[in-house]
Automatic annotation (TrEMBL), chains A, B:
Record-annotated HTH lacI-type domain positions: 3-57
GO molecular function (one): DNA-binding transcription factor activity
Source species of the chain: Micromonospora nigra
Protein name: Transcriptional regulator, LacI family
Region (Disordered): 334-376
Pfam families assigned to the protein according to its UniProt record, in alphabetical order: LacI, Peripla_BP_3
SUPFAM superfamilies: lambda repressor-like DNA-binding domains, Periplasmic binding protein-like I
InterPro entries assigned to the protein according to its UniProt record, in alphabetical order: HTH_LacI, LacI/GalR-like_sensor, Lambda_DNA-bd_dom_sf, Peripla_BP_I
Statement: the UniProt record of this protein carries the keyword Nuclease: no
UniProt KW keywords: DNA-binding, Transcription, Transcription regulation
Length: 376, 376
DNA sequence: ATGAAAGCGCTAACAA
DNA sequence: TTGTTAGCGCTTTCAT
């Protein structure tokens, strides 16, 4: 039988409430009593039952991570960081994989809601309105999506796309393709907008191809189009797609970077290992995981004790944290980009090969941003 | 305020126990009452509080996954499969990352023990005796480690290593290196034993290099040794190491597979994407995750209701499931292996290039094995 | 500083 | 078939 608070009380000759206090409010108990109780607890191997505790405090000390696809290499570092951060604050984390399915996502959120103090929605696929509705049931932090009035952790892929396009223009490319990601992705929209602006500013033409599935196959499938379109460079929605594109071009006999330069987004581990090594926009996924957990727990701490049980946020007059954090990205220049037809002219934006002087943005240096709405 | 069983009772004009029964023993309640209760529950958005339920039933309907390193690409497919399988049985899963640290592992197991009905230990790093002790506190299933009397899910990497060595011998290699994995890894020991036997049988000499960290760097670091040792082929503990080795050899001007053939183990997604594509022993990680969850929940179901609370297994006379499941592996031949100096002689064990007739072992076809002890 | 008592939301005998 | 009652392990007033 598992040892309960009562066993400890009996062993140390005090009332169970004293034992309880020893753990949840140590300063309220006589130091001598405390050590005695602690000793007995240690002895018996007592661990408070969190379910029982949750029942009365309304705090489970659990959080939930809703992930679009664990097998997508973008997510594991985020999960790892989030889990580690949560644990350091004595929280445990449920991980749930939605398989990129919006309705599975909704179901999961509901199933978990009662068991957690808050949820991290990572690259959610459901509609904004559903998310807003959910946020009334359970504290939420959204990663990679911007919603008015909700705490979000965003990666500045817009900035990244700008750096990427500048890099390509500097190398002498004037015809650039953009391989778009999934419809309705906030990240995708940001990339497109910034890439377009940067291309315009640099006197280059941007051809948007897509939307595409955010996978290797999405990239392979576009290789033929890329070749025919006559572009000399391409920016892909993510690394997986970029790697697929390189593969596809290779199969068509098109050399990367000699004939076409390719840039990805994410800097997944994989990107250092392919041949050629991928030039890419590094997104601070670990920092995002940590930050998101911090924001969630902050929210949790802020809530008045009265508003207990899940769905606490619904209580009248409760101040919500709605900070939106924008994490910086950086361009990592490797071997998949090279000189284009207009090389040597204009200002030398072309970085030298190798791990050149790429923009170094400290991932631990978030920029808080006033939240403004963006549809979907 | 969250809606409780009492709200539903009030709304449908029955006692709370009837509502309770409607959910946990529907057959005991009048169909008409049932639909009414269900309707009210639906209306109010009622969801049973699992913590409260757990408190009395002793079943949390949660399981825990203890993972050595989520960022290691070997694990995500396993996690994904396990989570999906668990959910289909209405279980939620805690994921905890130990960072390959045995003591973190122990701490985590204890922290989680009270909150789960069972734990999956994936490639555990702690000692056998500790695991055995733990298994008395909480139902356990161990993946990638064999212990007497404990349910284990094993991948037959021994068979895989044999296939790999046979393949190399068939290609005409007679001097083969084995890049060992971490000390104390069951997988490592199996690979070494089988590879040695297969080499002996094939008239080849096997040189063991290591132990090495199971990472890309582990492989890079051995490149120089491999070159100097004069072998013409190498089998690595895992794909990451194999990829690192290829990288390292490349840096030394040694061509793979022309001068040295390389084989990995695991068949992580990455391995299809490197150049050259990696020949490797595919381990059925998803099947392992599914199977392990099944075994755990089976155990859970078997336990008599009397033995409630966690640590149920400790009750006297409780029959434990101790089946050990061995999952088949297969050799996937890609581009990192080619003819060796003795090619053309002997029987043509050399498979043709391409996705040839490699051994097809159905991952859904486990072989149950009588458990026999293996230290560490 | 400690004890007594109530009760979190739910299930499980037992009665009716 | 339904209601009554007790209580899972814990925290938290309220007394003392």
């Amino acid at each position: 039988m598992p040892v309960t608070i009562r066993d400890v009380a009996r062993a140390s000759g005090v009332h169970i409430s004293t034992v309880s206090r020893t753990f949840s409010a140590p300063h309220l108990v006589n130091p001598e009593t405390r050590v005695r109780v602690l000793a007995c607890a240690e002895d018996l191997g007592y661990r408070p039952n969190r379910a029982a505790r949750a029942l009365i405090t309304g705090r489970t000390h659990n959080i939930g991570l809703i992930i679009a696809d664990i097998a997508n290499p973008f997510f594991p570092p985020l999960i790892k960081a989030a889990e580690s951060q949560a644990r350091s604050r004595d929280y445990h984390v449920f991980v749930a994989d939605t398989n990129e399915d919006p309705s599975a996502e909704e179901e999961l959120v509901h199933a978990l809601a009662k068991q957690v103090d808050g949820l991290l929605l990572c690259s959610p696929r459901m509609s904004n309105s559903l998310i807003e509705q959910l946020s009334r049931e359970v504290p939420l932090v959204v990663v990679n999506r911007q919603l008015t009035g909700l705490p979000c952790v965003l990666m500045d892929v817009g900035q990244g796309a700008r750096l990427a396009v500048d890099h390509l223009v500097g190398l002498g490319h004037r015809q650039i393709a953009l391989l778009g990601g999934p419809r309705g992705s906030w990240t995708n929209r940001e990339i497109r907008r910034s890439a377009a602006a940067a291309a315009r500013a640099g006197g280059a033409e941007l051809t948007v191809l897509g939307p595409n599935p955010p996978t290797e196959h999405g990239g392979i499938a576009q290789a033929e189009h890329v070749r025919r379109s006559g572009v000399t460079a391409a920016l892909a929605y993510n690394d997986l797609m970029a790697i697929g594109l390189i593969e596809g071009l290779d199969a068509l006999g098109v050399d990367v970077p000699r004939q076409v330069s390719v840039v990805g987004v994410d800097d997944i581990t994989l990107s250092r290992l392919t041949r050629p090594k991928l030039t890419t926009v590094a997104t601070p996924t670990a920092a995002a995981g940590r930050t998101a957990v911090d924001m969630l727990l902050q929210q949790d701490t802020d809530l008045p004790r009265a508003a207990r049980g899940s769905g606490a946020g619904a209580a009248v007059g409760v101040r919500r944290t709605t900070a939106q954090v924008m994490l910086q990205t950086e361009l990592v220049i490797r071997d998949s980009t090279g000189p284009g037809p207009h090389a040597g002219r204009g200002r030398s934006g072309a970085a030298p090969a190798g791990p050149g002087p790429h923009r170094r943005a400290d991932p631990g240096d978030p920029v808080t941003v006033a939240g403004s709405d963006v549809a979907s």
